[in-house]
Amino acid sequence: MASAVSTQIQLVARPNGWPTHDDFRTTRVSYDDPAPGEVRVENAFVSVDPYMRGRMNDARSYVAPYALGETMTGGAVGRVVASASDDVPVGSVVVHQLGWRDIAQADATQFRVVPDLPGVPLSLRLHVLGMTALTAYVGLTRVAEMREGDTVFISGAAGAVGTAAGQIARLLGAKRVIGSAGSPEKVALLTSKYGYDAAFDYRSAPVREQLASAAPDGIDVYFDNVGGDHLEAALDAFNDGGRAALCGAIATYNTGAPVPGPDNLSNIVTRGLRLEGFTVGNHLAASPEFQERMGAWLAEGRIAYDETIVDGIDGAVDAFLDMMRGANTGKMLVRI
Fold first, then answer.
1. Are residues 169 and 52 in the same domain?
2. How far is CA 243 from CA 194, 223, 267, in A?
3. Residue 66 pLDDT more than 90?
4. Could you read off the pLDDT of 98-141 as tens digits, one per residue?
5. Is residue 301 part of a domain?
6. CA-to-CA distance for 63 and 196, rounded, in angstroms?
7. Local structure of 112: helix, strand or coil
8. 312 occurs within a structural domain
9. CB 260 within 8 Å of CB 236
């Protein structure tokens, strides 16, 4: 007799343009008691992230596409409720990639035990203390090689990576931090809560015009979550020797046809620019340094964050679609 039943979300069709509910299904998976070396985890929070849209396509990328008819994966944090492994005992807090389900059961090697910090919500393991903020840290320090006194522009600044990147840039000594967001409310939040010196609503006027106004002396670093017209605007605004960390291109994820590239690529040559794409999985060696610095900043009260939470695994698809439309402020999470 099964000892646990897990509710899981599977991909059943490759989206053409924007995903719809018809591309997914909810299923129930029964688990027996953990076999030797296995553990069972009740997820507390599941992450939905922009990169997951790319995995829904059957195309070459830095990670394999989701298989049709199989449960999707993604970041999650939870507690071990049954264990047949001495290395991961019952009660441990673990982070792992078996998201899109309320209960995960697998070999103990797929779970990483993390400290259960008093007064620190488990959800922070999926953003401020997790891969999201690590992505921001790596992009600024390792890829763009941000220097004290730089002017930094961050697109998609009100999202989980963007809110972390703005604060990290400020803490690393940026002279000026500029962000874009998708509503007046988000713009106000960037300057009032997240330490941005200037921000603009990219829906209200051309990005090129707004960035030129916000950065009259140009920019030195661009952290790109959006691509499209934001990348084009950054290429216009760069000072000589500027560096870009290209993290995402959410503006193009749901387009049904190829999108024209920037019309000012020649600036890369004439201004000696460096544009480098990256994924955080290639920079995990930076994690100990990041954890030490972010842990100290958080303890000192120097890090702010927002969470947009949808309750229940049955709401995971809605949470994902809302996040892709920019309905979230900060990290979008599914609370189990």
1. no
2. 23, 9, 12
3. yes
4. 999 999 999 999 999 999 988 899 999 999 999 999 999 999 99
5. no
6. 33
7. strand
8. yes
9. no
